[in-house]
Design brief:
It is a single chain. With 768 residues, the chain is α+β, with helices and mostly antiparallel strands. The chain has 24 helices and 28 strands. Strands 1, 2, 3, 4, 5, 6, 7, 10, 11 and 12 form a 10-stranded mixed beta sheet that branches. Strand 1 (2-4) and strand 2 form a beta hairpin. The radius of gyration is 28 Å and the shape is globular.
Amino acid sequence: MDITAEHGRSGHLMDGQTSDFRALAGPPTPALPAVVEPPSIDWSPAPPVRRIESIAPVGVTQLPDGACVVDFGQNASGRVRLTDLGPAGARTVIDHGEHVDASGDLTTHHPYSSRPGEPTTPFLQRDEVVSDGLADAAFEPRHTVHGFRNVKVQRNGLDAESLAHAISMQVVHSDLRPTGTFACSDPDLTRLHYVARWSFRSNAVDVPTDCPTRERLGWTGDYQVFVSTAVRLFDVDGFSRKWLRSVRDDQLPDGRIVNSSPDPNHLKQHPDLLADHITGSAGWGDTIVHVPWVLYESYGDDVALGENWDAMVKWVEFALDAARTKRHPSRAVSAEVPLPHEQFVWDGTFHWGEWCEPKRRAEDGTLIDPVAADPTGWFTADKGEVGTAYLYRPVHTLAAVATVLGKHEMAYRYGELAGRIQEAWQTEFLDTEGCSTAGTQASYVRALAFGLVPDHLRDAAAGRLAALVRASGNYLSTGFLSTADLLPVLADHGHSDVAYAVLAQRTSPSWLGMLDRGATTIWEDWDGVDADGLATASLNHYSKGAVVRFLHTHTLGLGQAAGSVAWESFAVAPVPSAGLTWASGSFDGPKGVITVKWAVRDGTFRLDVDVPAGSTATLVLPDGTRVAAGAPYTPSAHIPNPPSTRSTCPMPDVSASGLSELISLRERRAVVTGGGRGLGRAIAARLAEAGARLLVADIDAELAKATAAELADRHGTDVVGVEMDVTDSDDVRETADLADARWGGLDAWVNNAGVFPSVSIADLDDAT
């Protein structure tokens, strides 16, 4: 996107913005946009893109030529704010990048890109501003967003110390509501979760992009890989549905899904032979079926299924037709006439395949790029194992979607086809002993994750996968499509020790190796920064960060029960590694906040879980003991409050009528747990409005304190925000002590998670 004006300002969404404050000081001049046919306008379900937070520099280095390189300590998407622009007429140039070289200078060469036979395309993110000399002037571009950790600032007479106080990073992305937390006794794993979360934040700028720098494209493969992780970290329902509109708009008449949406090639309007040839790949087009299904499973959003049904069918029918009518040339060598099952083997059209498997090293230690080393061989290779697996999954899923939407004849048809595809995959790519004919880690991971392996061979196939990993020295060799499922598949089949051994690796290819070399976001290449400090490719590609789903579902142990929708039923089954002593986390889902905390002390494993009313849970201890917990919410059900630890802190049953009594009496004293968000926040607001004195307690201290400050300011009552984990008796005791010290005790303990799980704002109005 370009924004131009006659005087003072020009802007490009990726390249940068230039502003001359001297020209802007005069009468306003309207911008002159290009004349285009306006598109139809519709309501967007996505949250807006906003300035989310401000980050101060962690260091400023002045170079010999006088320029300054600023390090913000975090790779992110956004822009800078500069409050010292120098004297009138001074020009400040700000270049953005992700890395600095050995001299401390900004380096931007690693995101450069090129196409075969074409010169390299340089990439620069540059903002410029000319000062008008006013002391209160500040520059913060509004017509561009950059991906960066460092900026290089150039201006005559620049002073590093002054610059450090005048510049800040303004983080900009879609305002997604956080839903998932994770921490554990291993600080590296906690840090990995933090870094992966930042990488997704950086790439959630209105659409899910691959990187916030050179491409900034909504690659369909990236999001179908990551969406199951995204739903654990943030509420991405509206964000995803909005992007799926673009995917549907870009879908070609023959049903193919383009590689990235919005489509930068505009294939529907501007035919391009190369772009057309590589469009319609298995694993990329699958996003139109997989993403809506994940939204349905996670949020109960059947609207997303209905919106995308026609596009799903068109994609699946294209893939089925391609499998039936196209055949990889290599098959004619073994059988001139296709065998009956081959009509369900998808191998005759272009596929990206596993893509980005860890690069091998040449004898001199340099990395070998398989595409650059032999582009013809790579493009013409048989990728039918991947294609057929990704034919099975969307067809199988489409049968389930049809069932949800009441399209029973379609459900039967696609269910039958899924069975035929599964049989074809087994015939072509699996032997009778459970050995994958491809023989790769990725082929076993995909087969086990998608349910392609017969039940009686699953253990054998998983054993061969574990053996492959061990034989590689406990290193992964999976690529783009299957890395996210590697650790869960290993752990689910009794090989959690192997999964954690892979996760613990610190040399390439490994996640912790990235952290050791300074990564604050996930890299595109495992060797994104080599041992010599040289950067390659993007340093902010979120897809490999999908590994942190394993930290939620296995390390913490929290996952939806099979067949559950919108977290009506879930399981807590921690699979800890030998070295972990505790893990804690939460998920703010459709039924309420689930909190999980486990710890091993003196040889005893203790598990604490908050189960929202309206949900049922199964707790599975490491020794196999199973405990049922929770029950569907009914208004008459009594759900006990946390046990009181002090006589001065009575915790009566606070029903809706109890809330009414509490509200009716001014100056009452109460703790509201979970008071920083959702229903708890609404209850706290109603009580504060009625004049009650409150401790707003939440596991998120910042939310608790912000809520308390807002309510105290609005209602003039005594409201304090405190951090509290309701599963931790020490936290509960400390909160009670604080109430004693402040007010001499409490009148009520309002446990929103237990007592008011389904009370709406209207119910609260009735209660008053």
